[in-house]
Write a structure and sequence with these properties.
The protein is an all-alpha fold. 73% of the residues lie in helices and 0% in strands. It is built from six helices and no strands. It is globular.
Length: 117
């Protein structure tokens, strides 16, 4: 994970090796999931990016529920669903993100939400 040049599909292969072996809340596992999402997006494999984001989302909800990182992940996942044409799931996630932003930032959250989009 600290290599200057990462091999193609490196994060995805790492996740396959770590699944079931490493504690799911390990920081290495979480970092590898984040890299796998990024790598999948760069390869235009949005379905795989959604799969990795859905693995990461419950971890994020459990440990950092209203954090900017969790809101960012929800917004990113919403955008991925939108790109794949699943507007219903995208809208559901946008509403969840908006509720989290309002809860943490107060009623002046529209500016933050519009900037995140």
């Amino acid at each position: 994970m600290s290599a200057e040049v990462m091999p193609l599909d490196g994060p995805q292969q790492c996740i396959e090796l770590m699944t079931g072996v490493v504690y799911p809340y390990s920081s290495s596992y979480i970092q590898c999931l984040e890299l796998a999402i990024d790598d999948s997006i760069l390869q235009n494999n949005l379905a795989a990016a959604i799969d990795f984001a859905l693995i990461l989302l419950p971890i994020c909800r459990r440990f950092a529920k209203e954090s900017p990182a969790c809101v960012g992940l929800v917004l990113r996942l919403s955008r991925l669903y939108e790109e794949l044409g699943n507007m219903q799931q995208s809208e559901k996630l946008l509403n969840e993100a908006q509720a989290k932003i309002i809860f943490t930032r107060g009623l002046n959250s529209e500016k933050y939400l519009n900037k995140a989009r």
